[in-house]
Amino acid sequence: MDIFFQQLVNGLTIGSIFALVALGYTMVYGIMKLINFAHGDLVAMASFVGLTVYDQFLGKTTNSILAVIIIFAVTGTIIAMAGIVLERVAYRPLRKAPRLSAVVSALGASLVIQNGIMLIWGPRMRFFPADILPAITWNIGGVYISFIQVVILVISLLIMVGLIFFIDKTRVGAAIRATSIDHDASRLMGIDVNGIITLIFVIGTFLGAVGGLFIGLYYRGINFNMGWNYGLYAFVAAIIGGIGNIPGAMVGGMLLGIFKAFIAGYVSSTWADAFTFTLLIAILVVKPTGIMGERVAEKV
Amino acid sequence: MNKVFRLFFALLFCLALSGTQADASETIKIGVQAPTTGQYANEGQGIDQGVRLIAEQVNAKGGILGRQIEIFTCDDEGTAMKAAICAKDLVNKDVIAVIGSYTSTCAEAAQATYYREGILQTTDGTSDALTEHGYWTFFRNSFPNSAEATYTANYFINVKKYKKIAIVSDFSSYSTGLGDSVIGEIKKLGGNIVYQGKIKAGEQNYTPVLTNIKSTHPDVIYFSGYYNEAGLLRSQQMQLGVMADFYGSNACDNPDYIKLAGKYAEGSYLINVPSPELLPYDLAINFLKDYKAKYKMDPPSIWTLLNIDGMRAILHAIEETGTTDTKKLAEYLHTLKDYPGITGPIEWAPDGNRVGSAHQTYEYQADGSKKVIYPIVK
């Protein structure tokens, strides 16, 4: 039984990261009906920026908690700005264009960012130092949970709950919901649609940046082309949960993480990806709107 | 008209004859096929620099058979396609022997061309497939995967007496080949393999596989892959509380392994041929000194030195036989017994495999250095 719970913990950790990245996908899709394929590469970029911030400014700090908070704040800000630039340059000029143009633009942006990372930081793997966070591991009845896993789980949950509160309970959240239903009607009601879209990109890329930093802190080794993989899994998670739906992205991310862990654990790690995409197809066939899809408002 | 042709061919024949007669003053041409750019650039540059150093030393002493050595380098970038092009290129340069390449893939892509042209080839590729074609031109200067497998199995079963062994590979041909080889050897010795599985290189989350391994309570986890995955496996193994010894194969021997495994690198193990600085031979000490004096750095790894040994053996054969006829050179190389190499005595089996096994087991220390805990076995 401890094996089962261990796989569950493994799955939840990686699932939290998927969920954080998937939120960026789902929010952008919800408001613009656009799959932002460059999102995964912004996540990878966040890992590299975070490592540089650490190397440049915090390498000698002894207070690791403060260091981590500063890394997250600085990196999140830089990546959020990159998200704004991405929207301005690659998506805004195409907003009235056919949807395929925007998708091609997204794929192009993805390649530009990936190659940019390679040019700046090089094609070799880079490493987060091992001693940023304390390497503590707890043994709870045979199930091992490390400090970094707890950090990832708790922070991800706090962020997601905060995000749901923000969308559901605030005036800006109401504006975001309105914009996702109808841009023109929202504009007539006095909502600054461009401002809302920019805000969505800021929030989405910031969450992705947090995910990217978690990847760096958890696995330490980061690669210029890792964004594609995480982007793909997050995209699958968003679809499983119902794309455009914020709680759906969280549930989808967690489910995907756990599903992958169980398949890899109980069937074969070789087949984990094949099963993942079979699951995706099955969900699309049985319930095309995703698990929590019924809450998506349809454009009339 | 016919007469003119005859005269023409007669003239050509005379020219060809004069060509062979002028041979004594010509250079002996040796090719280097190595990845001097790309992913393995530092290894490829090491091989090129090492070969050129040896040629320079020999030329300074008046060359071999009164002839100077000339080196031609072709960069195969570590890809099979470029390797095939390099093979053609070096053939056109009229080399009699080629040193390289660094990867098994590149050596294999080029070896048929060298065989057809009767050009000697010596490489550090460890893939067993390299010697399966039976090319008389081919000489492996490193040790094949099967030799490492024999060493590893013997060490696990007879020395460490492990009762439960878990074996993990990735999907590369090197890793799969070595992993299967180790499994076969362990089974031959009656060892008990409780887990064997594969991971996908590049996927960073190996906790599901490790959790499965944990449920089999192994004494040891052996990974026959590359350093990036090894570092993550080791670090995640310890975080999951899988208290087994961890062994990496020769491709895990890289400073990046320590960066990924972090503090958990300490106390993990590695099986590889000797590190250059640990070679116990005067030849090695002198060569390393010369290399450092000329290039202001150490050779990147043992693979450079293995290739240098291939080069030295071929030069030795030319000197002893007094000819550059590759057929005769190959015959002579096959009869070599205990030729003193930088990396130990050299002897070749009829299929071109290097005989013996110079593998060692290292333990990583807290400061990241390696300590030999089980010595050379011949």
From TrEMBL, chain A:
The keyword Membrane applies. It is a multi-pass membrane protein. It comes from the Bacteria. It is found in: Cell membrane. Its main location: membrane. Keywords: Amino-acid transport, Cell inner membrane, Cell membrane, Membrane, Transmembrane, Transmembrane helix, Transport. The chain crosses the membrane at residues 12-30, 65-86, 98-121, 141-167, 196-219, 231-256, 263-286. GO terms for biological process: D-alanine transmembrane transport; L-alanine transport; L-isoleucine import across plasma membrane. One of its GO terms (cellular component) is plasma membrane. One of its GO terms (molecular function) is L-isoleucine transmembrane transporter activity. CDD domains: TM_PBP1_LivH_like. Pfam families: BPD_transp_2. Belongs to the binding-protein-dependent transport system permease family. LivHM subfamily. This is LivH2.
TrEMBL record, chain B:
GO terms for biological process: amino acid transport. Residues 1-24 form the signal peptide. InterPro entries: Leu-bd, Leu_Ile_Val-bd, Peripla_BP_I. Keywords: Amino-acid transport, Signal, Transport. It holds the Pfam family Peripla_BP_6. Residues 27-367 form the Leucine-binding protein domain. Gene3D superfamilies: 3.40.50.2300. Belongs to the leucine-binding protein family. This is LivJ2.
